[in-house]
Design a protein that fits this description.
Layout (H helix, E strand, L loop, with lengths): L2 H15 L4 H15 L3 H4 L2 H5 L5 H33 L10 H4 L2 H6 L9 H47 L5 H43 L9 H49 L6 H72 L5 H15 L3 H12 L23 H16 L2 E5 L18 E6 L6 E5 L5 E5 L3 E3 L1
Length: 483
């Protein structure tokens, strides 16, 4: 559709929008016409009646028939006009349109942006955006509470089961795998607590700050931004609405006189074909029709002149309205871009699948579970509680008389160590470096500390040792030397 066609449609629909009371005026006009209408036999003069050479009774009978026929014709004419207008007029209240009427082309044009007052939807968009931001903040604050509750429940779950796991009958790498679930839960609880803080302190505060900078509230309600847009639309549309009102007035006047002309033509056609209508009456009806026709031509010319003025004003009106609309669109574009970035930030915080810390938690847990070694656990049990345990097999012990010489302190300590080594078994070693056990089945010691080596080095370079407190574990073979 070209701009010229669009302007023509705009003007036409603008006129149709302002015809709300036309039906009522038509009804009143029809009532007045019915009162003004007089039967043909009443309009005949006395001389005309005297000029009739027919009998009085026959003449009166024909007069009554002619008058009744004209009254019926007039009634039928207005009934036809009323039925036609009823068919053209939409049924029901204009404020409560049905779903089917909303899809009609007439209703689409009546709701068009170009029609008076229909810019309010664009004005209201600014206020709606502010309320949408409030809903968004409330929505993700509730999500933040869910994250906090989940973190608390993870911590409670871990604290509840950690003592049970530590005191369970499991041992070795299998026990360590179970314990890793507890430590992973603690780490995840911390991560979800950080998600909660991010949603509230970062995303929520960011939206609040943006709202404060973007929407400026007025003292008596509303926002400065929406008022500026509304004032611009109203200022631009005021002369347009004035022209539309003037055009509608001219259109209604033209339609009114057109109906009068149509009725006059109908009366003229009826009179010309009716031999009972006197010639002077036919002439009078013809003069009335000509007079109404001239009046209709005048009103039509005025209507066309006003319509031409409105059509010439349409391009300017459209340009000014689009300028203000583009300002509103630019503000809305900034709002959409900001909210898009906010949604992406929220997605980044909630997307635990791409969170490096979460991936590290589950990666460590997986590696710990994959490190469960049934052979190593069985070997540890064998050496700790089974046949691999060191023991002091029975052997012949020669009786030796006690020496009465007083032993020195160092000699007594050395003999106690030797007896202890013989009783427990193993080789005494001394640590060359500090070592902190990385696993639960490893020993930790300081440089210079001495303990027993109860198992030789394996193919991976590890030995098993036992400290004086009875704690056993693995240690690197090259970290110690034999005493």
């Amino acid at each position: 559709m070209t701009s010229k066609d669009q302007a023509a449609v705009l003007v036409e629909r603008g006129g149709e929008l302002l015809q709300g009371r036309e039906g009522e005026e038509e009804g009143r006009e029809g009532g007045r016409k019915k009162k003004e209408e007089k039967p043909t036999h009443l309009t005949q003069t006395v001389g005309q009646r005297k000029g009739k050479r027919r009998s009085g009774s026959v003449l009166n009978e024909r007069k009554i028939k002619a008058g009744g026929a004209e009254r019926r014709t007039t009634k039928e004419l207005f009934a036809q006009l009323k039925r036609r207008k009823t068919q053209e007029r939409p049924k029901g209240n204009n404020k409560m349109l049905t779903a089917s009427s909303e899809t009609s082309s007439g209703d689409v044009y009546s709701r068009s942006f170009w029609m008076p007052g229909n810019y309010q939807r664009t004005v209201k968009r600014t206020e709606d955006a502010f309320h949408a931001c409030n809903d968004m903040v409330a929505c993700f604050q509730e999500r933040a509470r869910l994250e906090r509750q989940y973190a608390q429940q993870l911590s409670e779950w871990s604290n509840k089961w950690k003592p049970v796991v530590d005191s369970s009958p499991l041992y070795g790498s299998l026990l360590k795998g179970w314990q890793c679930f507890m430590s992973s839960a603690d780490r995840l609880a911390s991560l979800h607590a950080s998600i909660c803080r991010s949603l509230v302190l970062e995303d929520g505060d960011q939206v609040r700050t943006w709202q404060k900078d973007t929407f400026h509230k007025k003292l008596f309600g509303g926002f400065k931004e929406s008022q500026d847009i509304e004032s611009g639309f109203a200022r631009t549309q005021k002369p347009w609405a004035k022209r539309l009102k003037k055009l509608d007035k001219a259109r209604r006047a033209y339609h009114k006189v057109s109906r009068k002309e149509h009725a006059a033509r109908e009366r003229e056609a009826h009179a010309q074909g009716n031999p009972d209508v006197a010639l002077d009456k036919q002439k009078k009806i013809q003069e009335e029709r000509e007079q109404v026709q001239q009046e209709a031509e005048k009103v039509r010319a005025r209507y066309e002149k006003i319509l031409d003025e409105v059509n010439r004003y349409v391009p300017r009106y459209m340009e000014e309205m689009e300028t203000i609309f583009d300002q509103s669109q630019d503000e809305e574009r900034k709002r959409i871009v900001f909210l898009k970035q906010t949604f992406l930030s929220i997605h980044k915080h909630l997307d635990v699948t791409n969170n490096e810390s979460v991936r590290a938690v589950y990666s460590d847990l997986h590696n710990t579970l994959m490190a469960i070694d049934e052979q190593e656990d069985l070997r540890w049990w064998k050496n700790t509680y089974g046949p691999g345990m060191p023991t002091d097999w029975p052997h012949f012990q020669e009786w030796t008389p006690e020496k009465k010489t007083k032993k020195g302190k160092k000699e007594v300590e050395k003999q106690a160590i030797i007896e202890k080594s013989v009783m427990i078994g193993g080789v005494r070693v001394r640590a060359l470096y500090d070592y902190v056990g990385q696993e639960t089945d490893e020993l930790s010691f300081k440089a210079g500390e001495e303990f027993l080596k109860i198992e030789d080095e394996d193919d991976q370079g590890w030995c098993r040792g036992m400290k004086d407190g009875g704690w056993e574990g693995l240690y690197p073979a090259n970290y110690v030397e034999v005493v």
